[in-house]
């Protein structure tokens, strides 16, 4: 978990620098591409649109939620363009990290003049 928290901090730091350089209100795809490029340049492995499996009744269902980005297999990154992070986005990130696998999630909102972000960590069950 400690490694995932450090990676989540690196994701937020990269996003802050990216937001500072590119500004706000670009397309979702622009931020996703730039963040991916920056994280990969730092040596991170970044996967796009990764399905997160859901375990139910002892079975693994391949119909869980989808992470916008999965960094080094342990940090879920959700990108958004909202005015402010609301409880619904927090619940979505919590739901994703509650699934099997990654236990740290980051929500990044690039719409505002300042980058709004939320990092959620869930201890292993």
What labels describe this entry?
single chain, 125 residues, alpha+beta, two-stranded antiparallel ribbon
Describe the protein.
The protein is an alpha+beta fold and 125 residues long. The protein has helices at residues 2-22, 28-41, 87-98, and strands at 46-51, 54-56, 59-61, 66-71, 75-80, 104-109, 116-121. A five-stranded mixed β-sheet has the order 1-4-5-6-7, sandwiched between helices. Helix 1 crosses helix 2. 27% of the residues are buried.
Note poorly predicted spans: none
Number of domains: 1
What does the radius of gyration come to?
14 Å
Quaternary form:
single chain
- Count of runs of 4 or more consecutive helical residues: 3
- Give, in spatial order, the strands making up the sheet with the most strands: 1-4-5-6-7
Distance between the termini: 12 Å
Largest sheet: 5 strands, mixed
Roughly what fraction of the amino acids lie in strands?
25-35%
DSSP summary, beta strand count: 7
* Secondary structure: helix percent: 25-40%
Judged by helices, strands and strand pairing, the structural class is: alpha+beta
On the 0 to 100 scale, the average pLDDT is: 76
Name the helix and strand elements from N-terminus to C-terminus, one letter apiece. HHEEEEEHEE
Shape: globular
């Amino acid at each position: 978990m400690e490694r995932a928290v450090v990676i989540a901090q690196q994701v937020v730091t990269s996003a802050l620098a990216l937001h500072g350089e590119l500004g706000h209100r670009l397309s979702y795809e622009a931020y996703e591409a730039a963040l991916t490029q920056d994280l990969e340049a730092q040596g991170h492995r970044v996967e796009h649109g990764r399905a997160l499996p859901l375990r139910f009744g002892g079975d693994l269902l391949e119909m869980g939620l989808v992470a916008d980005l999965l960094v080094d297999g342990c940090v879920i990154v959700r990108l958004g363009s909202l005015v402010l992070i609301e409880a619904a986005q927090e619940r979505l990130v919590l739901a994703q990290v509650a699934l099997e696998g990654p236990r740290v999630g980051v929500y990044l909102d690039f719409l505002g003049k300042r980058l709004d972000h939320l990092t959620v960590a869930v201890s292993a069950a």
